[in-house]
Every structure is written in C-alpha cells, then in structure tokens.
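Page 47, continued from p. 46.
Same chain as before, 102 aa.
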Amino acid sequence: MSDTILPGPDCTTMTEVRAGVDALDRELVALLARRFAYMDAAARIKPARGAVRDEARKTQVIANARAEAERLGLPAEVIADLWERLVEASIAYELDRFDRTR
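Result:
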C-alpha cells in the first residue's frame, strides 16, 4: 500500500477510501483548532460575557455554511445542522475561556 492519499473519485478499494477519510479528518481537526483559536481571541476581546452569544451572527454563520453547501452540491440541511452544533460548541468554548480569563 502506498502512502499516497487518493482523491475520492480515484479510490478503488475501501483501504484507499479509509486512508483518505482519516487524512481528511486530521485536516478537519487542524482547521477546527484554528477556528477555536479565534474563539480564544473573541473571549479576550469581548468586553462582557453577555457579548459572547450573538444570535444574529450565529444565524449569519449558519446561513453562510448552508449557502456554500448548496453551491457545492452538498446536503444543505446536514451542513446547517453540523454548523448549528459547531457554533453552539464554539459559544460554550468561548464562554468557558471568557470565564477563565476574568
């Protein structure tokens, strides 16, 4: 087996598919680490705990993800649900960080 990760359409075995998924999952976690670093910054910058939850921004972020999913031909409802969970987890993380720094 080669260490080369094939694009999905080029995979011919489940071993290749699983290797690609595992590699992509590592990349996704690295991207989430970058996203959560912005939550650290937001917790540091926001002047009050009540500023952490911003429902208008939450709605915008989920709508952006939904629109991008539609543009890419992905299931928009699934992506919106994932983003709902991601945003809520990000808010909880930011609140925790806010509380730890005050």
